[in-house]
Design brief:
This protein is of the alpha/beta class and 359 residues long. The chain is 41% helix and 16% strand. The protein binds pyridoxal-5'-phosphate.
Length: 359
């Protein structure tokens, strides 16, 4: 018997998550915060790390960090909190937790690429419900899908990635009330939208709210968080591997949170640059740009694949989404960078569009 027969078919079919090499490029592909922390903050983090007891295992519950996050993120005291090695890990833990035989994960499409990938890994059946052409939620279709597929878990990115929009609050409330299972509102871009379901945790027992520090400026620390009813938390805890949040991340994040307004101030600058970049893209002939409540912009051009390649040749890396979903035909996504980076991108984009439309 070939050893290949030992492999799970759905895993064999997956392609491993590919991260493109961005060395020496203007890197606007991954929704990172383009700003370093001020030197004084980095120095005080470095000082704390100097005494980090890395010969010991981490605080398994990350008590101090959790408490600081509760305050900084305004988490209702009724909710329990679990930390993850990035929110990707939490999506995986939630999926594993509800992956009974034939259990369904429902997602909206297009949305975050990891939902269907993690569903496959966890052995859940993934059902994707297309958004409307303007990327709003098709409530009738979603309600029908709840009925038909009885999903154990529904993942909603709010704002959505890669489209950047917030779905209508009323629609999501209907969804939460009608869902037969859990609804996870993934608020990875909260810092740039300032709209949250966190206060509603008290009201809806089937609601989970997920956050991450990644898009806000701490992507390298790998820190995500899920807030939910204690009963779900206690169940999820059984799936969390011990020490999933390492000592250096715990200490660094705790220290940086003492300067909370720095991350907020950077988010404010990014929002300002987002609006400027939006206006500049709106003014470019041949570009259709979609408004965004996140730190990136989705836009459409005539020949996205060629424009993407031409940008890359000019040293600018963004994200090509043309083949990701039917609704994203000829779409590209650019992360909001520093003003100088955005200017380089705009020049390169203008040249790239000229080049591809000339030939
Ligand atoms: C980036 C992103 C994540 C993953 O964030 P990490 O905490 O870095 O793992 C989760 N959800 C959405 C919608 C994202 O865009």
């Amino acid at each position: 018997m070939s050893k290949d027969a030992l492999l799970r078919e759905e895993i064999a079919r997956l392609t491993a998550y590919h991260v493109p090499d961005a060395a020496d490029m203007v890197k606007l592909d991954a929704m990172e915060n383009p700003y370093m922390l001020p030197l004084s903050v980095r120095e005080s983090v470095a000082k704390k790390l100097l005494d980090a007891p890395i010969n010991r295992y981490p605080d398994a519950e990350a008590k101090a960090l959790k408490q600081a996050l509760r305050i900084s993120l305004d988490i209702p005291h009724e909710a329990a909190v679990m930390l993850g090695n990035g929110s990707d890990e939490l999506i995986q833990i939630i999926s594993l937790a509800f992956s009974k035989q034939d259990a369904v994960m429902l997602g909206l499409e297009p949305s975050f690429a990891m939902y269907p990938i993690i569903a496959a890994i966890a052995g859940m059946r993934y059902v994707g419900i297309p958004l409307n052409a303007d990327f709003s939620l098709d409530l009738d279709r979603v309600l029908h899908a709840l009925d038909e597929h009885q999903p154990a878990v529904v993942f909603v990115a709010y704002p959505n990635n890669p489209t950047g929009n917030l779905f209508a609050l009323e629609d999501l409330l209907t969804l939460i009330k009608k869902a037969p299972g859990i609804i996870v509102i993934d608020e990875a871009y909260y810092a740039f939208a300032q709209e949250s379901f966190m206060p509603l945790l008290k009201q809806y027992e089937n609601l989970m709210v997920m956050r991450t520090l990644s898009k806000q400026g701490l992507a390298g620390l790998r820190l995500g968080l899920i807030a939910c009813a204690p009963k779900w938390h206690d169940y999820l805890e059984k799936l969390r591997l011990p020490y999933n949040v390492n000592t250096l991340s715990q200490i660094a994040a705790l220290e940086i949170l003492q300067y909370g307004n720095i991350l907020q101030e950077q988010a404010r600058q990014i929002i300002e640059q987002r609006e400027r970049l939006l206006a500049n893209l709106q003014a470019l002939p041949g570009v259709e740009v979609f408004p965004s409540s996140a730190n990136f912009l989705l836009f459409r051009v005539a020949q996205a694949t060629r424009v993407f390649a031409s940008l890359k040749k000019r040293g600018v890396l963004i994200k090509a989404l043309h083949s990701a979903h039917g609704l994203l035909k000829d779409c590209l996504r650019v992360t909001v960078g520093r003003p100088a980076e955005n200017a380089i991108f705009l020049t390169a984009l203008t040249e790239s569009i000229d080049e591809t439309s000339a030939s």
